[in-house]
Write a structure and sequence with these properties.
617 residues, 35 strands, 3 domains, TIM Barrel, Immunoglobulin-like, Jelly Rolls, eight-stranded parallel β-sheet, 15% helix, disordered C terminus, six-stranded antiparallel β-sheet, alpha+beta
């Protein structure tokens, strides 16, 4: 049977205010709305609030915003605004890297796109689907507000069926990237706060009753049974649903219940399992009476047993690297398939089989391309450093972002770890907050590991004695933590004196280590910011980690230099975090070859396969 209990799943999704939206939205027919959009920079948010700071939406004005319909100017007196006379911004893209005057800008920018569209059927439903908008978005079509979304890195959709016209549609989006103490992330981060419509935008056409969700994976405890959950949305929730895998000559069918949900178990003897060495993908078709989807899906198992991480029952060593969603050559947000190919190509050249996509959900191209290339992924939500742990709205925000990420990537074989946080200071409120997210992840998707990048504490009596005993580790599958001995903690010579006490008997993943280096700056190994210094940190750290009995992989910080407003040292950082193994110019630093050689030594064949777990009754 499928590993996801229907009742608990639907209860949780209801609590997370599930929106009606078609599954695999960006693979469906419709209209690509990428391109040049008119834009108005609005630092005082004059288009959203009146001079008493009352939101126009709250004032029951029919259009939602002052320039969103054809009201006479006398009704608004805001004659300063005109989209037609305004410049443009490319979508997808961040505004910071497109216009010098917006480089540090945090606030509101209004976007407008005009388009025509005639649905293929009078019964079709139309959705405006956004890959992401950082950080808040208000969406209006033809003067009608469709909705509001919070969270800068996850997809969202709003139905537009009732207000779409065949000709002359005006789509307006207010995007605001201001940081908030109660936000996720909060006001302090170590990456650039790129604002804008940073990912693809599409108008998507779907049938009146469509497939809103489909989760397809190996059933828990088996390697030859596929568990399938399908959920329909619309006026005909009860329909026959059929799932087929033509290459395996497999078909299964059932009928959805009154809630539109169907659960299937498909026996699949002889199925080839997905792995980094053999990233096999099958074409899987899901067909209801009114809708159908086709996707390329890999099947694999991931679990923890003792100190081992088992992929398809075999121990796997995770040869990883952290990566930000940034194109260093452009100095802006990565968003395209070409960007993903560049980043993942560099990781493969490093001999990686694993990437940590830090510190927020990256775009969908990354996971889909990783499926094809055979790269394992750690995906994370931006619960970063110290969010407002006692604020229920902050928790609801984090839960929604986790749900949107899982909903998007639940069928990607490459994703093996959901991470709920990075470097969060220990407190009872924090652990309760993160425990809720861990429980959500297991309820929404019980087929992957759950972890977080935790911190290390130092023995007060011995600075070389490092202790890993975060109480959150009781609830995670892995002991994952960041350590910077040799950079923030002493010089490289300290590294080989470090000893570890790790409280729990679980696999250890070092989720960060590293040091800054300016590409092309050469000096002695004791000179900070030189390539030789960074190289020495890697040379000393890797043998030290090998001494940890539970050590099963690492994701050093980080693949490429990336922008950060916190890094202001003139002529060294200049607004860049320099811990990348590749510089902002795309050239590799000396430490790249050290890690590449270390990973080459870990390319040996895995040990004999562990016996399969017993099948679930």
């Amino acid at each position: 049977m499928p590993s996801l209990p229907t009742a608990s799943f639907l209860l949780l999704m209801s609590a997370l205010t599930l929106r009606a939206a078609p599954a695999n939205a960006f693979l469906r027919p419709g209209l690509n709305l990428n391109g040049q959009w008119r834009q108005i920079v609005d630092p005082y948010d004059t288009g959203f609030y009146d001079y008493r700071m009352h939101a126009y939406d709250e004032a029951a004005q029919p259009s939602g915003g002052f320039f969103l319909d054809q009201r006479p100017l006398a009704e608004t007196d805001l004659i300063e605004y005109s989209f037609d006379a305004s410049p443009t911004l490319a979508v997808p893209g961040d505004w910071n890297s497109q216009e010098e005057r917006l480089f540090y800008y945090e606030g509101t920018v209004w976007y407008r796109r005009q388009f025509d569209y005639t649905p293929s059927s009078s019964n079709s439903r139309l959705f405006l689907c956004f890959g992401a908008a950082n950080y808040e978005a208000d969406v209006y079509l033809n003067g009608h507000k469709l909705g509001h979304h919070v969270g800068g890195f996850t997809p969202f959709s709003f139905e537009a069926t009732a207000v779409l016209k065949p000709k002359g549609n005006s789509l307006v989006v207010r995007v605001n990237n201001q940081r908030h103490r109660d936000g996720v992330p909060t006001v302090m981060t170590d990456w650039w706060n790129y604002g804008g419509l940073t990912r693809d935008v599409r108008l998507v056409e779907a049938p009146a009753t469509f497939i809103a969700d489909n989760a397809i994976h190996l059933a828990s405890g088996t390697r030859d049974h596929i568990a399938i959950r399908v959920r329909l949305d619309g006026a005909r929730p009860v329909q026959k649903v059929t799932v087929t895998i033509p290459e395996l000559s497999l078909t299964a069918g059932t009928t959805t219940g009154p809630d539109g949900v169907a659960l299937l178990d498909l026996a699949a003897p002889g199925i080839a399992l997905w792995s980094p060495e053999h990233p096999k993908l099958y074409t899987v078709s899901v067909a209801a009476e009114t809708d159908g989807l086709t996707d390329d899906i890999g099947f694999r198992t991931i679990e923890v047993r003792g100190h081992e991480i088992l992929l398809n029952g075999q121990p796997v060593f995770l040869r990883g690297i952290c990566v930000h969603e940034e194109n260093p050559l452009r100095g802006g947000r990565a968003y395209s398939l070409a960007d993903a190919s560049q980043l993942l190509g560099w990781a493969r050249d490093l001999n990686c089989n694993f990437l940590r996509l830090a510190h927020y959900p990256h775009n969908e191209h990354m996971a889909r391309l990783a499926d094809k290339l055979g790269l394992l992924l750690w995906e994370e939500i931006p619960v970063y450093w110290a969010v407002a742990w006692d604020n229920p709205d902050t928790l609801a925000n984090a839960r929604a972002q986790l749900s949107e990420l899982i909903g998007r990537d639940q069928n990607r074989a490459s994703v093996i770890i959901w991470s709920v946080a990075n470097e969060t200071p220990v407190s009872e409120a924090r652990t309760r907050f993160l425990r809720t997210l861990i429980d959500d992840a297991r309820t929404l998707d019980g087929t992957r590991l759950v972890s977080a990048a935790m911190e290390v504490r130092t023995d007060p009596a011995d600075s070389a004695h490092k202790i890993v005993d975060d109480p959150l580790g009781e609830f995670t599958d892995l002991q994952s933590f960041n350590e910077y001995v040799g950079w923030y903690d002493g010089m490289p010579e300290k590294i080989n004196r470090v000893r570890w006490t790790i409280a729990r008997d679980k696999p250890v993943i070092i989720s960060e280590f590293g040091a800054d280096a300016v590409q092309g700056m050469h000096a002695s190994a004791s000179t900070r910011f030189s390539e030789e210094f960074q190289e020495e940190v890697y040379r000393q750290t890797l043998p030290m980690l090998d001494k940890i009995p539970q050590f099963r992989g690492c994701t050093p910080w980080i693949l490429c230099d990336f922008r950060s407003p916190r890094r202001v040292l003139p002529k060294i950082q200049d607004g860049w975090n320099r811990k990348g193994l590749i510089g902002e110019n795309g050239l590799k630093k000396k430490a790249f070859e050290v890690l590449k050689a270390y990973y080459a030594d870990h390319l040996r064949p895995p040990e004999a396969a562990a016996p399969p777990p017993p099948k679930q009754p």
